[in-house]
Amino acid sequence: MTQQEKKLINDRRDGKISEHEFKERLPLREYTDRVQLEAKVNAAISRDDFQELELLIYLVLWVLPDSNQYTSVLNELLVTPGHRDHQEIARRLQKFKSPSTIPYVRAVLLSDFDYLAYTGSDSDAIAKWFSWILADIGTPEAIEVLEECSHSTDEGIRNEMLYRLKKCR
After folding, report:
1. Domain of life, per the record (predicted)?
2. Is residue 76, in this structure, part of any structural domain at all?
3. Range of the domain at 124
4. Which of 38, 49, 90, 138 has the most beta carbons within 10 angstroms of its beta carbon?
5. Pairwise CA distance, residues 121 & 34, whole Å
6. Do 168 and 116 share a structural domain?
């Protein structure tokens, strides 16, 4: 991502330029292609360039078409620390209901939520984001993760998974 592109995205995010001007000046084709977007996200992650990562997340969540073609990018971002958009990413993944999201949700639920401490939420509140995703996906594999996490040593996770399992049955 060039410095000019970073400035354009920041200016749009901060409301300094219109959506029309933004879309005219930013080469969106480079970002709408899922493979190119994944490469840009992975490059930002590998460089620990969290400023660029935040800008890429902004594009995925608020600029690019709301399409499940970006599910793989969102899955990776769900388990990536260094940004503050995990809840919004979880909402989008819940909407897409993709079984490919299940292992990522499982990984988050089996983590200690350290990278989500910025939310200021207790584990039960955070676990709720992920129980909704699993319940909406609704496959046997998703229900298995709910079941597995209903035995968590973390009381908040355990209680949320038990609650969601009751709603699924």
Report:
1. Bacteria
2. no
3. 86-169
4. 90
5. 32
6. yes
